[in-house]
Amino acid sequence: MARKLQVTFDCTDSDRLARFWAEALHYRLEEPPHGFATWAAYWADRGLQEEIPDGYDSVIDPGGVGPGIWFQRVPEGKVVKNRLHLDIQVTEGRAVPVEVRRRQIDAEAERLVGLGATLVRAVPSGGLPDYYAVTMLDPEGNEFCLS
């Protein structure tokens, strides 16, 4: 039986990353459990002693298909390249001409830059005439790609 998957990002500003990734993936911010006005109230009720900022720390796929993503606050910032990154497919793939995919990917990259991402580089064909992708960083420097 397949297992349910959650992706976890270590971060310093969970609310900012939750909001960014909700927009980037067309997910929604995960509301606190019933009976709690905020996530901080929920975690305090569970006995978490550390300071808990107001805001969101997780996003979910509104269709229930994709994995949930949790943004875990940690005291240290990111210092090295990710060993794992997300690839976000924003086109229909090779069924669409590469020139059309390039425009779609570049438009999505521009939208995400407006939300706080950084464009690192476009990855042209690399010897493949029908390949195009863009490498980016989220607001805390986590690498991801658009294809």
Automatic annotation (TrEMBL):
Gene3D superfamilies the UniProt entry points to: 2,3-Dihydroxybiphenyl 1,2-Dioxygenase, domain 1 (3.10.180.10)
Superkingdom field: Bacteria
Protein name, as recorded: Glyoxalase
Glyoxalase-like domain residues: 6-146
